[in-house]
Write a structure and sequence with these properties.
Blueprint (H helix, E strand, L loop, with lengths): L25 E6 L7 H11 L4 E5 L2 E20 L5 E6 L11 E8 L3 E2 L3 H9 L7 H6 L3 E8 L6 H18 L4 E4 L4 E3 L1 H8 L13 E6 L7 E6 L8 E6 L4 H17 L9 E3 L6 E8 L7 E6 L10
Parallel strand pairs: 12-15
Antiparallel strand pairs: 1-7, 1-8, 2-3, 3-4, 3-5, 5-7, 6-7, 8-9, 10-11, 11-12, 13-14, 14-15
Helix pairs in contact: 1-4
Length: about 325
Amino acid sequence: MNIGNDVWGTGQWPSSSGAQPGTPYAVELLYPSAPSLDADRLAPRVRAFCPRVGATDVGGRPPVLFSHPDHLVTIDLISRHQDGSAAGAAPHDDRAPDDAQPAVPARTVVLPADRVTDVAALHQSLSQTRDWDAAADALARSTARVVVTDLMARDLPPRERLALFESVLLGVIEAARPAAIHWRPAGKLVDPAAFLRASGSSELDALPQAAINVRLFRVARTDRDLVMDTLGLAALGLPDLQVAFRGLDPARVAGHLYAIALYTLRHAGALAAGDVIEGPTEGSEWTAHDARAAVGPPRHVVGFDPGPDHSVRAA
């Protein structure tokens, strides 16, 4: 468990990876050298995980566009800015298709390989990667990246959107094994071999775990007050989670927060301000409330009050 920047009292947001709500969902595959990718090479591997996907490229070269005919979203042909000017096509808030808003398949795109440039973000994510001992070595030998991103998928239910994205990602990884996955929305590095193994697991949350990170930070000017949060849910349109506490085992809190995050991903909107849930210790309760993230990126979170014996704010 890494203890990162001091928070509360610094007046600044510590830098962090993480995608913002409403933006395309994307990860970076890191390679020692640029791989050769095209639709003919990728499509058979991707179809092993997503059988009905369609694949096209541009003259045998990336970008490779995967289309998902079983996962439709409706779009407004013309959306408008606040000043009334036309802004082009955009996903519609209501997913039910009608004559006015045509339905189009959600898509996943594999972009052309380019050089690794954002080294600071990679090292920030490395500092919050605690479940892969070889992450630093994998990062050190990575000089090229391939971005995999979704398109027209933001209005899908979060769990469906993530499952669709991960099915394409698995196929790309099998076709061209990277040294590491930079899971930017979760601010961490993921072992590609472990991710592939998870695809064969019978555990319900084996694959979604890659998309969520639990981070630990120390509250400024204290020795015992800690903040723990999740990073990864916000990129899927869900609130991340946060708890400030003292006097609790951080490993136990991390496991509990992870379980709540996975439950939130399975049951979008299940948690609301005022809800009381079981805490990580016997007989304890946590009360949910709306909050602003204590650690960047700036985002809305569901905060938890761990009770008077462990609350930082009550101290």
